C-alpha cells in the first residue's frame, strides 16, 4: 500500500486511468489475465501498485469468481464515493465538485454550506486526507487557496499558464522572450532591406507570422515549459505596446494543413523620431523641476545635473 | 497663460532687445493690456524709454495696439510671437538651404530689424555680401532672391496705415489688402548700386537726397511670414519621418507631393488637397532621379504604413492622393510623448502608456494582463504615471455610494492634456538653458573680455603686418589654463544653444498639434 502521501507520478496516474477505462469497458469485472493483456508495458508490480491505490481510494472493488479475482469499478455515485462520510462531508464535496476546475474558495464553501468555519475546516481536512479533493494556490492572490476535486487539472486562470511558476509571475522570462522575438523580427527587417530595392517586397519580406516566431522560440530552447502559439502572440503584443512592432491580420490561404483562418503577421518598425529635444538636456527628466528656480535653492546656475551634462 | 511661458518670453526679450524691453514686456504679460500712461507709472521708466521699447516691440510684431474701453490706445504683448524668437536661427538656416547665402542674409536682416523696405534689404544684403566675398553679388541677383522669397510667400508686406486722425490721436487702424500682400513694388536699383561703393549705409545717404533720388517703395515694409515658415518646417518634419520609416526615396516622393499640394490648399487644413497620380509621376520624374516604375510601389507603402502619411482618396485615374497632415502630425506627437515617457519613467511605463493610448479605457487588471507586467509593478507604474498626470482615471461606481472598494477605475490618456504639459516642460527647460547660458557667460566675463581684447590687438597687428614673434607674444597673454577654460566655456555655450534649438523643435510639433485641435 502506498499511502505515504508521496506525489503521484504521471506514469502512475496514466496507469490508473487506463485501469479505470478498462473497467468501464467491462462493467462486469476484469480478470487479472485480461488486465495483463490489455495494459501492456507494465510490470506486475506496477499494476499491483496502481490497483492498490485505486482500491484504497474506494474506486475499485475486488470480487471473487471461482478461483479468479475480478476487479470491478465501484459505481461512481457521490454518495458511494464519500461512503462512510457524514452528511456534512457530502454537502461540501458536492459544492466543490460543482466548482469544477476553477476551484472554490473556503469562504464561499462556508456560505454555500452554511457550516461553521471550524466545521468546514475539519471536513476539508478529512476529504483531503481521503484524496478526494485538493487545495491549489491561485496566482491572482497568493494567499488564496481554492479547493477542487483531486483528479482535476487546475484552470489556467488559477495557475496563470506558462508565465507562472509556483504562483510567481516570471517577468524575467517574459522579458527574455520579448527581446528574442524583437531580435528575430529586427533581423528579418534587416535582411529584407538588404535583399531588395522594391519597397513592397521589402515590406512583405519583413513580416513574420506568429507561427514562424513560435517555431524560432521553440528551437532556441530558452523555455522550460512548452509555449503555445497564443503565448507567443501575447508576447508579440507587448512588443506592439512597446512601439517596436506592428501587426497586420490577413486571411490565410487554405493549405492542406491549416483550416484557413486568420494569420497574424508581425514586423519590426523604425520609430518615427530619433529622440526629442526635450530629453536631450537634463531638465527633461529632472525630478525636481518644480522647485528649480533662479535664485532658489535649486537653480539652473547651481544645478548639478546641468554641470554633469555640460562637463561630459 | 502659464508662468513658465511668461518666464521664457521674458528672458527671450532680454536676450534679443535688452532689459528695458524685457521690463515693458513682462509688465504687459502680467497685466494683459495696458495704456501707455500706466506702463510709465508701473515701470517707473521715463516716457522716452517706454516709447522706444514699445516701438521696438511693435516693429517686431510683438505688441498689438487697439483703442481700449476708455478711448486710449492699449498695448498687448503677443506672447506666441515672442516665443518665436527662439526659432530665429532655424528660419535663417532654412532660408539658407532654400535660397543660399543671399536668402540667409535677407531673412536675417528682416528678422533683426523686424520690418524693412525692399530697397533697404536689398541694399544692405548686397553690401554685406560684397564685403564677405571677393567677387561680390550684383544688386540684381539679390533682388531676384528677394522676389522669389516673396513669391513663395516666405516674406510678406506689413500692414499699412489706413486711417489716422491727427485731430484725435488715438490708435490708428492698420490694414493690409490680401491681393497686395505679395505684390512687388518698383525699386530703383541704380540708387542702391550708387551707394554700394560708399561706406555709408544706404539709408543714411538717402536722407539728403532729393525727391528724384528717393526710393519709390519708401512706405512699403516687409517682414518674415512666420506662418509660411512653419508650414515649411512642418512638411520638413513629415518628410524626415517618411525617410526614417521608408527610406530616402519615399521621402523624396512625399516631398514632391507636399510641394504640389502646397500652393493650392489651405496649409492648416487636416489634409492637403488632392494630387493625382499622373501629376506625381510627372513631377517626381522631373525633379528627382527616381524613375517612373519605382513610384507606384512607394505610393502604396506610403499609404499603407501605420504612420499614415499619405492616403489614397480615390482610385480614379490610377489614384488620387492627399497628405493626411493632421493624422501624421498626431503620429509624430505620439512618438514625441512616448519618448518623453520612456526616458522619464522607463520602458515599462512607456508600454503601459502606449497600451492605454491604443485601447482607450482599461482597468488595472487588464493593463497587467496585456502588458504582461507583474501586478505589483503595474500598480506602481500606473500610479506613477497617474501622479505625474500622464494618465487619467475614470471612476465607474458599481453601487450608488461610490465606495472605493466597489468602484472600477478605468485609466485613459488625454493626449492634448499631456501634450500641453510637455510643452510647459519645454518652456521651463528652455528658460533654464538660457539662464544657465547667461550664468556661464557671466562667470567667465572677465576672461571672455580679455580674449576679445587680445584678438583685437592681434587683428590690428596683422593689419600693420607686424612680425610673427610679436603676435605670438600677444597671444601668450592668455595662459594655457585660461585657454582651456575658454574652450570649455565655448563648448558649454554651444551645447546650451543647441539644446535650445532642439527644444524648440519639440515645442514646434507639439504646439502645432495643439493649435490643430482647437
Ligand atoms: S536646471 Fe537642473 S534642477 Fe533645474 S530643472 Fe533643469 S535639471 Fe532640474
Q: Please give the domain count of chain B.
A: 5
Distance between the termini of chain A: 75 Å
Bound molecule kinds, no repeats: iron/sulfur cluster
Helicity range of the residues of chain A? 40-55%
Number of strands of chain A: 11
Number of helices of chain B: 22
* CATH H-level homologous superfamily name of the largest domain in chain B: Winged helix-like DNA-binding domain superfamily/Winged helix DNA-binding domain
What is the H-and-E element order of chain A?
Answer: HEHHEEHHEHHEEHEEHHEHHEEH
Oligomer kind: heterodimer
Shape of chain B: globular
Largest sheet, strands/sense/barrel of chain B: 3 strands, antiparallel
Query: What strand line-up does the widest sheet of chain B have?
Result: 1-3-2
Write down the overall mean pLDDT of chain B.
80
Order of strands, widest sheet of chain A: 1-3-2
Instruction: List low-confidence stretches of chain B.
Output: 194-209
Which outline of chain A best applies?
elongated
The CATH C-level name of the largest domain in chain B is Mainly Alpha
- β-strand amount of chain B: 5-15%
- Give the structural class of chain B: mainly alpha
Describe the 3D structure:
The complex is a heterodimer of chains A (312) and B (518). Chain A has 312 residues and is an alpha+beta fold. In chain A, 46% of the residues lie in helices and 15% in strands. The longest helix of chain A is centred in the middle third of the chain and has 25 residues, at 171-195. The relative contact order of chain A is 0.06. Chain B folds into five domains: 3-77, Orthogonal Bundle (Arc Repressor Mutant, subunit A), CATH 1.10.10.10; 85-198 and 213-224, Winged helix-like DNA-binding domain superfamily/Winged helix DNA-binding domain (Arc Repressor Mutant, subunit A); 228-323, Winged helix-like DNA-binding domain superfamily/Winged helix DNA-binding domain (Arc Repressor Mutant, subunit A, Orthogonal Bundle), CATH 1.10.10.10; 328-413, Arc Repressor Mutant, subunit A (Orthogonal Bundle), CATH 1.10.10.10; 419-517. Chain B has helices at residues 3-17, 19-31, 36-43, 47-59, 79-83, 88-113, 118-132, 139-151, 189-197, 202-206, 226-246, 248-262, 277-287, 295-304, 325-345, 347-359, 364-371, 375-387, 415-443, 445-463, 468-475, 480-517, and strands spanning 34-35, 63-67, 73-77, 116-117, 155-157, 160-163, 173-175, 221-224, 275-276, 310-314, 320-323, 362-363, 392-397, 407-412. In chain B, strand 2 (63-67) and strand 3 form a beta hairpin. The radius of gyration of chain B is 28 Å and the shape is globular. At the A-B interface, helix 9, helix 10, helix 12 and helix 13 of A face helix 11, helix 14, helix 15, helix 16 and helix 19 of B. Iron/sulfur cluster is lined by residues 282-283, 286, 288-289, 292, 298, 300, 303, 305-306 of chain A. Chain B: This is DNA-directed RNA polymerase III subunit RPC3. Chain B: Pfam families: HTH_9, RNA_pol_Rpc82, RPC3_helical, WHD_POLR3C. Chain B: Its main location: nucleus. Chain B: DNA-dependent RNA polymerase catalyzes the transcription of DNA into RNA using the four ribonucleoside triphosphates as substrates. Specific core component of RNA polymerase III which synthesizes small RNAs, such as 5S rRNA and tRNAs.
Amino acid at each position: 500500500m502506498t499511502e505515504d502521501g508521496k506525489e503521484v507520478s504521471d506514469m502512475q496516474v496514466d496507469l490508473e486511468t487506463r485501469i479505470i477505462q478498462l473497467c468501464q469497458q467491462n462493467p462486469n469485472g476484469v480478470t487479472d489475465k485480461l488486465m495483463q493483456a490489455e495494459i501492456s508495458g507494465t510490470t506486475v508490480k506496477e499494476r499491483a501498485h496502481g490497483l492498490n491505490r485505486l482500491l484504497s481510494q474506494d474506486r475499485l472493488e475486488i470480487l471473487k469468481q471461482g478461483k479468479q479475482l475480478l476487479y470491478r469499478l465501484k459505481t461512481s455515485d457521490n454518495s458511494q464515493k464519500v461512503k462512510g462520510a457524514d452528511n456534512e462531508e457530502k454537502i461540501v464535496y458536492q459544492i466543490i465538485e460543482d466548482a469544477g476546475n476553477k476551484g472554490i474558495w473556503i469562504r464561499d464553501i462556508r456560505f454555500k454550506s452554511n457550516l461553521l468555519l471550524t466545521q468546514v475546516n475539519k471536513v476539508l481536512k478529512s476529504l483531503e486526507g481521503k484524496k478526494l479533493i485538493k487545495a491549489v494556490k491561485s496566482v491572482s492572490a497568493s494567499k488564496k487557496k481554492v479547493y477542487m476535486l483531486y483528479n482535476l487539472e487546475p484552470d489556467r486562470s488559477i495557475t496563470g499558464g506558462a508565465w507562472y511558476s509556483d504562483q510567481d509571475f516570471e517577468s524575467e522570462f517574459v522579458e527574455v522572450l520579448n527581446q528574442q522575438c524583437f531580435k528575430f523580427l529586427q533581423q528579418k527587417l534587416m535582411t529584407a532591406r538588404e535583399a531588395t530595392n522594391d519597397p513592397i517586397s521589402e515590406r512583405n519580406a519583413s513580416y513574420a507570422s506568429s507561427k514562424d516566431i513560435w517555431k524560432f522560440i521553440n528551437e532556441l530552447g530558452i523555455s522550460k515549459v512548452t509555449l503555445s502559439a497564443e503565448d507567443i502572440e501575447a508576447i508579440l503584443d507587448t512588443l506592439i505596446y512597446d512601439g517596436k512592432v506592428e501587426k497586420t491580420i490577413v486571411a490565410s490561404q487554405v493549405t492542406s494543413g491549416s483550416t484557413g483562418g486568420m494569420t497574424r503577421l508581425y514586423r519590426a518598425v523604425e520609430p518615427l523620431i530619433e529622440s526629442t529635444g526635450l530629453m536631450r538636456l537634463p531638465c527633461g527628466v529632472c525630478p525636481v523641476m518644480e522647485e528649480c528656480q533662479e535664485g532658489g535653492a535649486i537653480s539652473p546656475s547651481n544645478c548639478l545635473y546641468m554641470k554633469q551634462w555640460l562637463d561630459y | 497663460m502659464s508662468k513658465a511661458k511668461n518666464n521664457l518670453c521674458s528672458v527671450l526679450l532680454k536676450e534679443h532687445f535688452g532689459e528695458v524691453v524685457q521690463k515693458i514686456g513682462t509688465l504687459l504679460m502680467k497685466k494683459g493690456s495696458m495704456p501707455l500712461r500706466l506702463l510709465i507709472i508701473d515701470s517707473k521708466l521715463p516716457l522716452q524709454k517706454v516709447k522706444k521699447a514699445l516701438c521696438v516691440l511693435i516693429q517686431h510684431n510683438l505688441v498689438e495696439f487697439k483703442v481700449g474701453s476708455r478711448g486710449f490706445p492699449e498695448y498687448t504683448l503677443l506672447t506666441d510671437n515672442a516665443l518665436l524668437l527662439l526659432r530665429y536661427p532655424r528660419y535663417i538656416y532654412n532660408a539658407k538651404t532654400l535660397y543660399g547665402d543671399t536668402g540667409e542674409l535677407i531673412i536675417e536682416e528682416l528678422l533683426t530689424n523686424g520690418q524693412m523696405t525692399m530697397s533697404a534689404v536689398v541694399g544692405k544684403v548686397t553690401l554685406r555680401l560684397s564685403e564677405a566675398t571677393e567677387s561680390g553679388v550684383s544688386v540684381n541677383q539679390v533682388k531676384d532672391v528677394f522676389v522669389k522669397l516673396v513669391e513663395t510667400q516666405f516674406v510678406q508686406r506689413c500692414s499699412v496705415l489706413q486711417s489716422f486722425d491727427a485731430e484725435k490721436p488715438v490708435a490708428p487702424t492698420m490694414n493690409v489688402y490680401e491681393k497686395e500682400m505679395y505684390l512687388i513694388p518698383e525699386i530703383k536699383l541704380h540708387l542702391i548700386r550708387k551707394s554700394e561703393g560708399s561706406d555709408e549705409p544706404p539709408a543714411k545717404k538717402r536722407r539728403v537726397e532729393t525727391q528724384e533720388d528717393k526710393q519709390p517703395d519708401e512706405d512699403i515694409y516687409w517682414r518674415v511670414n512666420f506662418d509660411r515658415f512653419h508650414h515649411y518646417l512642418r512638411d520638413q518634419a513629415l518628410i524626415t519621418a517618411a525617410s526614417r520609416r521608408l527610406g530616402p526615396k519615399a521621402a523624396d516622393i512625399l516631398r514632391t507631393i507636399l510641394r504640389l499640394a502646397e500652393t493650392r490648399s489651405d496649409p492648416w487644413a487636416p489634409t492637403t488637397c488632392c494630387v493625382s497620380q499622373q501629376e506625381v509621376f510627372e513631377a517626381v520624374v522631373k525633379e528627382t532621379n527616381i524613375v517612373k516604375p519605382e513610384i507606384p510601389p512607394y505610393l502604396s507603402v506610403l499609404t499603407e504604413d501605420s504612420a499614415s502619411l499619405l492616403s489614397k482618396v480615390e482610385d480614379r485615374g490610377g489614384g488620387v492622393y492627399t497628405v493626411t497632415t493632421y493624422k501624421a502630425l498626431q503620429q509624430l506627437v505620439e512618438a514625441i510623448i512616448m519618448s518623453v515617457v520612456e526616458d522619464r519613467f522607463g520602458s515599462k511605463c512607456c508600454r503601459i502608456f502606449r497600451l492605454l493610448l491604443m485601447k482607450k479605457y482599461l482597468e488595472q487588471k487588464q493593463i497587467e494582463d496585456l502588458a504582461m507586467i507583474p501586478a505589483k509593478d503595474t500598480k506602481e507604474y500606473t500610479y506613477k504615471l497617474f501622479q505625474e498626470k500622464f494618465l487619467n482615471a475614470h471612476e465607474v461606481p458599481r453601487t450608488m455610494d461610490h465606495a472605493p472598494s466597489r468602484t472600477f477605475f478605468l485609466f485613459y490618456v488625454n493626449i492634448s492634456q499631456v501634450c500641453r504639459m510637455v510643452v510647459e516642460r519645454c518652456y521651463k527647460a528652455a528658460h533654464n538653458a538660457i539662464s544657465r547660458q547667461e550664468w556661464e557667460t557671466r562667470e567667465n566675463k572677465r576672461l571672455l573680455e580679455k580674449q576679445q581684447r587680445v584678438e583685437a590687438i592681434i587683428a590690428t597687428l596683422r593689419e600693420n603686418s607686424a612680425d610673427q614673434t610679436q603676435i605670438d607674444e600677444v597671444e601668450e597673454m592668455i595662459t594655457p589654463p585660461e585657454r582651456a577654460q575658454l574652450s570649455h566655456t565655448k563648448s558649454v555655450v554651444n551645447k546650451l544653444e543647441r539644446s535650445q534649438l532642439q527644444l524648440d523643435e519639440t515645442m514646434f510639433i507639439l504646439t502645432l498639434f495643439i493649435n490643430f485641435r482647437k
